[in-house]
Write a structure and sequence with these properties.
Largest sheet of chain B: none
Helix content of chain A: 25-40%
Strand content of chain A: 5-15%
Number of strands of chain A: 6
Strand order of the largest sheet of chain A: 3-2-4-1-5-6
Oligomer: heterodimer
Distance between the termini of chain A: 42 Å
Shape of chain B: globular
Radius of gyration of chain A: 16 Å
Radius of gyration of chain B: 20 Å
Distance between the termini of chain B: 19 Å
Structural class of chain A: alpha/beta
Structural class of chain B: mainly alpha
Number of strands of chain B: 0
Number of helices of chain A: 10
Largest sheet of chain A: 6 strands, mixed
Helix content of chain B: over 70%
Amino acid sequence: MTRRLRGVNSRRPLATFVRCLCGVRPLPPDALPSAGPAVFFANHSSHLDFAVLWSALPEAWRGRTRPVAGRDYWEKTALHRWLARDVFHALLIERRRVTVANNPITAMAASLTAGDSLFVFPEGTRGDGLSVGEFKPGIHHLARALPKTQFVPVFLANLNRIMPKGRALPVPLIASVALGAPIQLGTDESKEAFLRRARDSLLALHPP
Amino acid sequence: MNVLHDQQLLWLLGGILVTLVISSLVTRVLEARAGAAGPSPTIQNLAARVRAWWVMVGVFALALVTGGLGSVVLFALMSFMALREFITLTPSRPSDHVALFVAFFLVLPFQYVLTGIRWYELFTIFVPVYAFVATSIFTAVGGEATHYLERTAKIQWGLMVCVYFLSHVPALLMLEIPGFHAQNAKLLLFLVLVGQSSDVLQYVWGKLFGRHKVAPVLSPSKTWEGLIGGVLSASALGSALWWATPFNWWQAALLAFAITILGFFGGLVMSAIKRDRGVKDYGALIEGHGGMMDRIDSLCFSAPVFFHLVRYYFT
């Protein structure tokens, strides 16, 4: 599994193409936590969001970071399935009928324990890019399941202008990827406090 | 058009090469003399600029010797990068998406196709007439009234400056000047050489003698001393290059003067936009120089006027 992940996911030409299309520079290795795995969480306004972070990551991280995405959306057509499974090796989770057997938190925790980093959009769905919505409690559940996990805020700017929700054609403007310092769940930190702290750490990266 | 057989063009390129070698040597000496504390930020910036000049001259020379197609492709790419910097800097709304897509993927390539196939009549009206109408319509069809005029104007302004104006540089290749057949690459080199050395000379004169600011609000680094020294010395350089152009020495001097003055105001206009948006550079594409737009702002404004002056008086 891991070898396949590397083979597919660290493809350099695709990463270079995405970086050129969106005008993004590779992230310097010292912008990332010294050791993985980590959970990257970002604002969500475009289908390009994951592809852009993925293309900007150093190669060692690129091969081992999986986007967490909604199964209902990403299994709709053959193209969606191909993109999600074969190109980006997404971890598809249930958003509607969650049972013990398909609990998304269990699947995410298993992926982290296996050494893969995850990429999540705590807003749950794509926004208009003008404001960041409230966070869904998923990352808190994950933090409780694996309390040592580092959560890295990622602010993605301008992607809503490059490919907004509902548009298939991109406009090649210059995007930016900003990484913040990782946060961890504090002992006795309430769900609301953790979610607020996570969202604030993301908003702090908003370019002026 | 086999430009490598053009002796004068080789002399011009050779001259640029020698200038770059000297600049690199001077920078090395300055860096070596800086001592243990390391070179000052000014010298580091100078070194970065000289390094970037090597790359830019290399790319430009390559485009020039491949004849018409290379230059058209190079300037199309420069327009693309300048336009994306320009539009990124000015706010747009989701309903502008189609108009922006049309600007980047239809208007821009088509303007350069027209340049390449030398269809002068359509080249000269395509952006002001058809692209203007199209962007107005597509923005309106987006269905949003908020800031309609500003949003449309920004796209149209970006297309005019970054695409239409800049396409006049490779368009110099389509001018048919009696007695100057198949030598137009030198005209292109004359424009770029005078314009870019004017920028450098204004910077140098300003650093050495600059006291009085020309436009303290718009561009604090521009001084009267830099402006006058740079414009006069770049005009003198242009005049001294008359032998490689269809002009005599005073015509070359006047045209060089027009290029440098318009270049200065081009820089001033683009600075005003940057100040308004609260940034110093349009991007970080070229080390030490900022973005593409920061490097070519002067060229955007001098190219169309130079093109039409030459077309009116010499064809």
